[in-house]
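[User] Could I get a sequence and structure tokens?

[Assistant]
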Amino acid sequence: MKLEIENESHKHSKGWEDSHFKIRVVSDLFTGLSWVQWHWLVNETLKEELKKVHSIALNTLDNNEFASASKFVIPGCTK
């Protein structure tokens, strides 16, 4: 499994400390599932932590997709 978490709260208005995150996950658990199921798994796993968060951007891949991907990125915040 590969997991990266990036705090982007500083790119948003004041008063939202630790509120905006990029989460990147690569896992064999995703193999054979749809990307909706991948996101559900991540959200379900982090449900208690996400109660304190305003926004997340998820990038989920199985190991096969990660091996063939040229980049493992999520587009930057537009604010």
The two ends are 30 Å apart (CA to CA). Strands lie at 2-7, 20-26, 55-61.
